[in-house]
């Protein structure tokens, strides 16, 4: 078994990381109870979903650390959950503005700046798009498609993996892993782009709601769960991370990634509790709120 093959420092590390995961779960449960009691029902489920991202990723990483054969399923579970969280974060920003109707009234003459990351941060020549019901629909569709198509692609990957056709670290053009990964990457960029466009517009209005620290925590989860994991997997595939018998390079890279994620998600869970637990005042009515300097001011 895995525990029998560990030396004393290894067992201590595994025990410490497991304890951190359990603490993260308890912190989230306590926070969920607080949110359920104190937050209005219109925002309650969305905020609980967003707060659950870090402890869920920590839990799946802990299971993958103890049961190496489950890594495929735990990674996919975390990926599906976070795809839903990205959509929930966009919906949270709309809810914090008072809902879609109130947001449209607040920014009646406003425009979305679409030259933002991660897709078009260098395309400064792109026109600004008027804020209408239709543009809001396209932004919501940009995150909703990710929440729908990523689970479908992950299910397809699992089916191919059980049949022996899908190898996670085989990125040759003839294998399905490369094409599925590229397609998921493109869907991810479009979803993050939609969230970035909305955040750039509402960050000043929602500054009183601490939207900037909330967005920073969300960005950290994106970077650590996707970019960090991809870099470690790439280093392991190229044998830059050396093997340590009985672990191969890819298995050792997977262990390193899971252990880092547990520690990082533990810290994010604790910080999220501080950020989301604060009591915030409601925004002023739309007639009292001025637009950004670049937009026309709304006439009362």
From TrEMBL:
Subcellular locations according to the entry: Membrane
Predominant localisation class: membrane
Keywords carried by this UniProt record: Membrane, Transmembrane, Transmembrane helix
Keyword Membrane: yes
Membrane spanning residue stretches: 12-34, 46-67, 73-91, 137-161, 176-195, 215-236, 256-276
Superkingdom of the source species: Eukaryota
Entry membrane topology: Multi-pass membrane protein
GO cellular component: membrane
Keyword Transmembrane: yes
Name of the protein in question: OSTA protein
